Amino acid sequence: PTPTSKIGRGEIHPTITMSSSTNKNRKMVRLHSSDGEEFEVAEEAIGGASAIIKGMLEEEEDSMVATNKVIPLPVTGPILSRVLEYVNRHSDEDGALYRDAPTADDPLRRFDDQFVQVDQDTLFDLMAAANYLEMQGLLDLTCRTVADQMLGKTTDEIRTHFYIHNDYTADEEEEVRRENSWCWE
Where is this region: Disordered (predicted)? Predict the structure, then answer.
């Protein structure tokens, strides 16, 4: 996404602060959404989750980030709120992001399973935000969810599910099938 694009759409949520009793001693950073919301989060939590924000925080010459610790993002408030919910849940009390994949009976796994039970637009907005923010865990989760939605479906069922218009002519489609026949074996 370009800096002027907006990831996510929907209603405005009130500003939230990721807070716990330990936030008082943490360095905080404000994230500014594309629709004007601000979110205050612990630097180590968001920096540990997002490679792009970590890079922004490390760049000393970026005076806006260095002095104000305000980072503008091309992500809408409702989607950024969900992203921060994910970060908050996946961070331990010291702000370090959990690195191990949760097991099937882990409460974190159950959280992830419920987290992606959203409408299709929200799921793709979360995926785009995770991609832009370079949040590998969230990107993997959203991509795996989309892949699971495609599993066992025919081409036509996938097109219907994801509202994909087939713009191939019958001849073009036959040519693609012929060139990629190994896919249907």
Answer: 1-26
